[in-house]
Every structure is written in C-alpha cells, then in structure tokens.
Specification:
2 copies of one chain form a homodimer. Chain A has 258 residues and is an alpha/beta fold. Chain A contains 11 helices and 7 strands. The first copy, chain A, has a 7-stranded mixed sheet, sandwiched between helices. In chain A, a hairpin with a 5-residue loop joins β3 and β4. In chain A, α1 packs across α11. At the A-B interface, α7, α8 and α9 of A face α7, α8 and α9 of B. Bound molecules: adenosine-5'-triphosphate (2 copies) and magnesium ion (2 copies). One adenosine-5'-triphosphate sits at the interface of chains A and B.
Chain lengths: 258, 258
C-alpha cells in the first residue's frame, strides 16, 4: 500500500495547506504520482490547485454525503502527475452527516479502499484546523501523520490536545497512526521565540522533529493568490524551493522510499 | 442589554485569540467590566488568562454538556474587572453533543439568559477556527461580530464562506447578526501583499473595515508564553499597546459607547 499522509494540527494557521500543496509539488517533480485530497471546509488547497471557475461536478463532500466512489471527485491539476480531490462547498455539513453513519470514524478509510487511490505513489490529506469527525476520519484512514508547528507559543500548546486525541483514537478505535514527524514552519531566526520553541520541541519529541523546517518567506504568502506552488512562483535557487527540497528528502528517508 | 461580541473567522491563525484577550484587557483598563468566554477547543485564551495549574472545576464545556448555569464556569483573572469562562477539556465533544439538543443553535443564547452575564458591561466570545455548531451558537448568541483578517490571500478567501454562513443563519434561523467590522491583523508594510489585501478588503467592505488594524509584532508571539496581555508584556509606548488602544477607541465608537 502507498503512504497516505494526513497533514494535521488543529491549531489554525500553522502552514498545513502550504506544506500539503508544496510537498505534493516537490514529490511530483521527482516523478511520483501524487493525489492531494482537500478535507478542509475552507478549501484552501482547492483554491490554489483546483479549477478557477465554478465548483467541479465531483468533490469530496459530494462523495461522502451521497456515498459515491471517491474516483468521481478526482480531477487533474496544472501539474502533470498531481491530481486533486477538491473539498466542495457542502463540506460544512459533512461532519454532522458523518455523526450518524455506521462506523463513522472509518467512512473515509472505506472510500479509500475503492480503486480510486491505487494508481498513486503518495496520497496527501490536507485537514481543517479542527479535530472533528472528518479530521478523525483522515487520521484513521492515513498511514502517517505530518504535524506542522509554527514557531510560536500557542501552536506548541496545541500539540498536547493533538496527542491526547491520537491516544483516544488508539484506545477507543484501536488504530495507532505513527507520527512521521513534526515540521517547524515560519522559522524566523531574528525572533528569540523561534529558538525557544525549537528547543522545547526537540527536547520533547527528539528525532521525531524534522531536521529542517520551512523558513518565514513572503513568497508563501503571495504564491496562493497566483494559484501557484512555490516551485513556480519562486525562481530557481529561491529559499522556499530549497526548504521544500529538503522536506521532500527527509519525507522520503522517513518513509523508506528511495 | 450589553454588547456581546463574537470574534470569529474560520480561517485559522488570523489573530482571533490575540484580539479577544487584548481587547478585553484594553476595555478593562477603561473601567469596564468584561467577561471573556472561551469557545475554542484549543483553549488558547484560557491558557493565557486562566489558572496555570489544573482544570478549573467549572468550565464552559461542563456547563453545556451537563446543563449547568454558566455562572459556574466564570472565574476571576489576574486583571481586576476581567473574568474568564475557560473552555474545558471536554470541549471537543460539545459539537456532537449539541447536534442532538432541541433548538441546537440557541443553546448558548439560552445559557446567557441566566443571571451570569448581567453584571458585565461587555462580553467577548473567542471562537474556534471552525464553523461547527458551537461557533454557530456563538454567532446566534452575540449582538455583534468582529472579524479579524490577516493580510494574506488565503484568509481573504475564507471571508466568502463566513458571509455565506451568516446568510444561512439569517435565512434559516432568522437571526441577523451585524458585523461590527473587519480588523486587519499582522500588518507588515514591508510586504506588498499587505497593501493588496487591504485595498481588496476596503473595496469590498468599505467602512466596515476598521480604520486601524494590528501591526505584525513579535511581542504578540511571545506574550502568551508569559501568560500576559500586551499591556503587561510591552512597556508603555509600545506599538502593540498603541494598536490596541486605537482598536478599543474604534470599538467604542462603533458600539456607540461613550
Ligand atoms: N513559511 C511561511 N512564511 C510566510 N508565510 C507563510 C508560510 N507558510 C504559510 N504562510 C502563510 O501563512 C498563512 C497560513 O498558512 P496556511 O494557510 O498554509 O496554514 P493552515 O495551517 O493550512 O491554516 P488553516 O488552519 O486555516 O487550515 C497563509 O496565508 C500562508 O500563505
Ligand atoms: N500582530 C501579530 N504579530 C505577530 N504575531 C501575531 C500577531 N497576532 C497574533 N500573532 C501570533 O500569531 C499566532 C496566531 O494568532 P492567534 O492564535 O491569536 O490566532 P487565532 O485566529 O486565534 O488562531 P486559531 O484559528 O488557532 O484560533 C499566535 O501564535 C499569535 O501569538
Ligand atoms: Mg489549511
Ligand atoms: Mg484562537
């Protein structure tokens, strides 16, 4: 089975979507076929990579609400080898809808068993900043978790809640999803809090913290408005591209991919 | 009735908690009695203003789950005149619990009718980055909405979803909560995207956009780790304090308070 990585942290604005989109682009540039599934009601990843006009016929919300195969939600993107399953506007009611489903934490995992995702080397799940049923479904359906943490105090605090939730998923549902690692984001060495947070993180989680992170970079703020990944927005040799090349390297090592 | 302001934007990390905590502190310094209610499962506001050791006996989750009066959740803070209703660890299950309540969008509004909040001049609600039932309850229970928007592209996109949700609340529940205004946050004039986002926002929402916003400021990243508001963390004359003084001025004008 291919790796299915859920990019999750219920703290808002830590860089989940930025990592999901650019990691996907980096892996595609290495010749891998990647599927990015947008499970956030905001549809940030869909806004960057999806079609600019109108809602696509198929989307994740429609498949989950109407029990349709996930393959109907998958569309190509401007990047060869990178496909997207966009969120869909009705995503806001999916959580409530899942609440009454049988085996409600496994709805997404069941949808994955269909042929839809077999063709991909890697599947990435972008999740909402909320540990509701849909994000729990993403955790249960994934093989690994990647946890972005921005170099600030409040995001650090949120990690306890995430770990407690993973503990309940293990105890009550019997699924133990390994953490691929914690990735530091918005690293700004001019600020003392960056070094403090990094030191705390490495002390608490040891080598579960990725060696390299993503530096603060205005290109990451601007590239989404051009519907581009960092690889298209920045010229060769840019800092953002370098950060994501290193991230791809380390993800490959941790997954045991060559 | 006193103003009840819900600080809401389902986009994560735009500065909701930072505004909730420091606006509360600024208003208390003007002699107003303020209650801050933490409705975010992350409990960021509770982490800054609440007791450092252990979970308080009463909290919002407990009151909503067990039907207890909200007054049991209210605790004093280190700031005279500022009380807090902390979130509570069981907040994560409140959304699912609300799903089966009668009049489920009005549970919080009903809890407010008890004597608990009558003693305050101003009530602030910090909400989660998610438009689930609890945040809908906050919107329905409030008299005004304050919407922080950080100067980036993806947060701008999220505004459409928020306005669509407010439209549904009006049509389906019959409650029309006025927007007190949109507040620009993390303003960094060195970045071109700041001017672009501000121009787009003012063009779209006109004078619903506050004249002054909150500038990017490392003190806002650090003050939460010291469990302090910006007024304690920064010396007199600091930029953060100046920004919140102007914000308090403009909130008072828009509420018609003298
Ligand atoms: N390294 C970076 N440097 C500067 N800005 C960044 C960086 N990474 C992300 N951003 C910007 O910060 C904002 C938050 O990032 P992003 O939307 O990826 O976070 P998120 O965790 O997906 O948010 P949400 O919790 O709302 O889903 C975005 O506007 C993004 O463009
Ligand atoms: N003006 C600012 N300058 C610099 N950093 C800021 C500013 N305002 C907030 N921050 C920092 O940015 C991060 C996000 O802010 P905050 O937690 O207040 O946002 P939020 O919208 O409440 O997030 P969530 O969606 O997770 O509830 C925090 O670490 C905070 O300390
Ligand atoms: Mg996101
Ligand atoms: Mg918050």
């Amino acid at each position: 089975q291919q790796p299915i990585i859920a990019i999750a942290n219920q703290k808002g604005g830590v860089g989940k979507t930025t990592i999901a989109v650019n990691l996907a682009a980096g892996m595609v540039r290495r010749g891998r076929r990647v599927l990015l599934i947008d499970l956030d009601i905001q549809g940030s990843a869909s806004a960057i990579l999806g079609r600019s006009e109108g809602e696509p016929d198929g989307n994740v919300a429609k498949c989950l609400l109407e029990g349709r195969p996930l393959s109907e939600a998958i569309i190509p993107t401007a990047y060869d080898g990178l496909d997207l399953a966009p969120a869909g506007e009705r995503m806001a009611i999916v959580d409530l809808h899942l609440a009454s489903a049988l085996g409600r934490e496994h709805v997404l995992a069941r949808a994955f068993r269909s042929v839809a995702i077999a063709d991909y080397d890697l599947v990435l799940l972008d999740t909402a900043p909320y540990l509701g049923l849909l994000t729990l479904n993403a955790i249960v359906a994934s093989t690994h978790l990647l946890v972005p943490v921005s170099c600030e105090y409040l995001p650090m605090l949120g990690l306890k809640l995430l770990r407690d939730t993973l503990g309940s998923v293990q105890q009550q549902i019997g699924i133990d999803v390994p953490i691929l690692g914690y990735v530091l984001t918005m690293i700004d060495r001019r600020e003392r809090i960056t070094d403090e947070v990094e030191a705390m993180l490495r002390k608490t989680f040891g080598n579960q913290v990725f060696e390299h992170g993503i530096r603060i970079n205005t290109h990451h703020k601007a590239s989404p408005s051009h519907r581009q990944t960092i690889y298209d927005y920045e010229p060769a040799g840019g800092r953002g591209r370098a950060d994501f090349e290193r991230l791809c390297d380390e993800v490959e090592v941790r997954l045991g991919l060559s």
